[in-house]
Amino acid sequence: MLRRLAAWLFRLAGWTVSGPVPHNLPKFVLFVAPHATSNDFYVGVGARAYINIWIYYLAKKELFRPAPVSWFLKKMGGYPVDRSRHLNFVDSVVALFNEHEEFRICVTPEGTRKDVSELKTGFYYMALGAQVPIVFCGFDYGRKAVLFGEPFYPTGNWDADKKVMAAFFNQVQGTRKSWIRNYLNT
Q: What's the CA gap between 112 and 164, in Å, rounded?
């Protein structure tokens, strides 16, 4: 019932989905960018309902307070991330992939809605360690479209793989001029 409501609201707001939706992949890291507004949460939940694939997501632990909010966010597939401690979070997520036959997780590598000078690379090493593909996903606010790219298996060569990411994200228009294109194209 909630899934149908979220999918209906997604369509009602004028959003569409474009590109190869990864229905046949039981495991992947979803790399969503650019992450520039809190509206991304609603677009993401709507898109997830629309494509009918359950995808967990990572979010800062501060969003999971107070308790009723924590319950809701976890029910919606959220995993809290403690950004203040140096935990081996990548290995924890790789273990989740290894423990489940199906596991998909959404990551916003910017790590914040603010402009940053570089991406957090945890998503890359999660996929590399779990030997699962990265699925690129752009929230194109100019076209009101959620764009999916072909699954990409990281090679371990960040500089080379960054160029593949840039090729996809160069076509995405965020809510403001996106720094991500400039970063990935360097």
A: 22
Residue 109 · residue 139 · CB < 8 Å:
no
Below-70 pLDDT ranges, the chain: 82-87, 110-118, 174-186
Residue 139 sits at the vertex; the CA angle it makes with 70 and 42, to the nearest 5 degrees, is 30
- Residue 65: what pLDDT? 79
28 is written with which tokens? Answer: 């992947």
Q: Which of 152, 147, 109 is nearest to 127 (CA)?
A: 152
Report pTM.
0.84
Compute how many other C-beta atoms are within 10 angstroms of the C-beta atom of residue 31.
23
H or E segment to which residue 31 belongs? strand 27-33
> For residue 186, what are the β-bridge partners?
none
Tens of pLDDT along 50-79?
A: 999 999 987 777 777 777 777 777 777 777
